[in-house]
Amino acid sequence: MTIHLIKLCVGVDTVQELADWQSARLKEKKKRKQPLVLMHVTRQTPKRAAEIVDGGSLYWVVKGQIAVRQCILELKHVVRNGVPHCGIVYDPKLIATQRRSHRPFQGWRYLEAKDAPPDARDLKGKNLPEALKIELAELGLL
Question: pTM of the full predicted structure?
């Protein structure tokens, strides 16, 4: 059974900022001839790893709303300063979700598949300004 992870996207105000940051990170890696892999390193390793890599996604909370997800490709064992960590490797493709408010939290949390917001519908207004998307989502219109 698939399970997802959810994480706050700290320091980012819009999905476009996240996309730009990740794109710049990949360009930097290419320039340094490093593997073109996006990975978030976290202290805790999920105990339900098998369920996560079986089709799970990393859902990003941007400015108080679940806004986008990225498919999780693998969980890697990483050591930083002699301390074991977990590297969450995810696909660079950002998939917009139907926005849903979410309270702040620390670290990551499991997100059951039944509780995950569906992918966003293909709307003609997909190029709306981020602030308008947030407001429409809060009103339940997007």
Answer: 0.85
